């Protein structure tokens, strides 16, 4: 349960002046916090090519200069995904008028979750397209992004190949340079409160 570490670090600081807080960086699946990222080779989400719910091409260029919250889901999920959608909807409401913040939900069943299916899901969940992108594409690319770049399953993800289903409650916070700044439990209200606070801290960098 390593995603608790940044949450536990963040919660006691919520009452501090945001200008005095700094978020660490993460470059490994064990989420050890790093503070010095002077090296050009520091971990960054790689370039990608996906498709959004309106059948538009969506790449790393679309998140350039944006703070992103990332999760992985599938539209027919009867378990945790509806709850994750509620958490994302809360972030959508909080940052709806903030052009710096973008929400990205990647389907882990891209063969079934076509843009048309994603659009219906978006309508059902009252997804605002300007704020919240539902993404599909090639399964191998989505799974590699989730496990090897977002570390969304933490250590376990690195041990699994793309034949093993990807399913997690984790949300990952990405800064304006596609670097990881936090991981949070999308089912936990306290963790979501910490994520909201951390987004506001990141906006001041």
From TrEMBL:
Keywords: Copper, Disulfide bond, Metal-binding. GO terms for molecular function: metal ion binding. It comes from the Bacteria. Residues 39-204 form the Thioredoxin domain. PROSITE patterns: THIOREDOXIN_2. InterPro entries: SCO1/SenC, Thioredoxin-like_sf, Thioredoxin_domain. Cu cation binds at residues 77, 81, 167. Disulfide bonds join 77-81. The keyword Oxidoreductase does not apply. The keyword DNA-binding does not apply. Belongs to the SCO1/2 family. This is Thioredoxin domain-containing protein. It comes from Persicitalea jodogahamensis.
